[in-house]
């Protein structure tokens, strides 16, 4: 039985549910809450369990869709920039070349665990994608076993078993930031100390991967003048139904049927991106992929279900048949995509799965160990047969030229008065490359702040005399905390100066051959003498002959000297560097950010008298 509204392809961004509704949407919110309560009450009156499950599933999906639509419509239009999600694909001549890079660039790292009974394995992928998934094309990666140093092969199991007395290979349950990580678990014996070094260690990881590459990808560039028009390229067509300030409604179609190899594989053939007038990509806030006709159809089916007294095979057959017939009539696909900012132009990219290339490969990957700090004198090779570029680097490196006024304009001031005894004013700014080079030698100096009352008109009035313990300034974290219990009068304004820190950065461009003393290229690895190029003052970026920045795989610090700091660092890249950019912090300046903050008013009814 499957009577769910097909929301698996709707792409509803549930994170948007955290946003608040504007006053104009309060009535819709109340109506939705009332509708939800009525629906839940109606479920209580259904006795047949199968019917109740079917109604709950379809009705719940419709309510979720309506709630998502409400939140998307009421979300404030605040500009937030993102990345070009197709940047990686643009570096390769065909979709298949991207697939080959994805598979051949995969390797496995051995990572220490906090327990002598655990060893973590981290599969490292050459690409990082935000949307539409971890990889642009339909794919499957299945781990099968791990081979240990004593030649023993341990089969993969989907979860760790408490009753299994042997060595186990299962998904890691402790690392939420890397959901692909695996853990080798050794048996625990009460009262017996275990030396992890004497345990058989993982030496290779076995599995298989399958990736489906589309025939091609074609991008339509559209603006407001294209509203109502259908743009076509061979078998692909796109119609821009509407382009509002922060969202677009689109219909798209592939007149050629999907390839037989795709079968029932869920496909996401459409990638919609938007730019504002600056030419930068806007981040997405969510999308709705159900047309009004689809929603009406499923609402009609829900009403039919609610009229039934019991679930039957005949009724299930009728519902399934109606669904199939209706979906067959949906020749065009629809999406409504919301963005964080005002749209100027749209890039609508369609993946053509009318013919595909299916790549299947058995994996037998060596487990490599690269500790972030090592005492080894020898440099371990890490050369992979792929080239991968760092498309975030150009934007990140703009922070090297950050100026005082830019830094000041980027500051946001937030307040917290939930606890009147620990009220806070926080000064923050987006982290940039400049912050990375600040180091630790700060001299913030004085950070004066004075609290003022307000007059009858709400304007700033006289200063408040306070004991020193009434407030505290933390200039390094950009926080002013104050205790309203110790204020003789209610403060209305805070006036003062908060220090910001700005690194003065010198950029140099070097050809790979020759390099100055202290820098050496060994294949794809840059070796840096940290006595000549201290890590707190220097950063290095590599490019190849295309002029693109190479993505760094990882870096290792070799602390092979007992007489002082780390001897050298090694940076490994996906590709062969032919040019280096060096960034050196030559000075550190303090920028005074003057402020007058109108204070949020706390609930003082519970303060001690």
List the topology elements:
Elements: H1 26-44, H2 49-74, H3 87-90, H4 95-104, E1 107-112, E2 118-124, E3 139-148, E4 153-155, E5 168-171, E6 182-185, E7 202-222, E8 230-233, E9 236-243, E10 247-254, E11 270-275, E12 284-288, H5 292-307, H6 313-328, E13 333-339, E14 345-368, E15 373-374, H7 393-397, H8 404-409, E16 412-416, E17 423-428, H9 433-436, E18 449-454, E19 460-463, E20 471-474, E21 479-482, E22 493-511, E23 519-522, E24 525-529, E25 538-543, E26 552-558, E27 568-573, E28 579-598
Task: Walk me through what this model shows.
This protein is an alpha+beta fold. It has three domains: 107 residues, no CATH class; 214 residues, no CATH class; 235 residues, no CATH class. Helices cover 17% and strands 35% of the residues. The strands form five sheets. Strands 1, 2, 3, 4, 5, 6, 7, 11 and 14 form a nine-stranded mixed β-sheet that branches. The chain has a five-stranded antiparallel β-sheet with strand order 8-9-10-13-12. A five-stranded mixed β-sheet has the order 15-26-27-24-23, with no helix packed on it. A hairpin with a 5-residue loop joins strand 18 and strand 19. It is globular and about 80 Å long. 24% of the residues are buried. The N terminus is likely disordered. Keywords: Coiled coil. It comes from Pseudomonas arsenicoxydans. This is Lipoprotein.
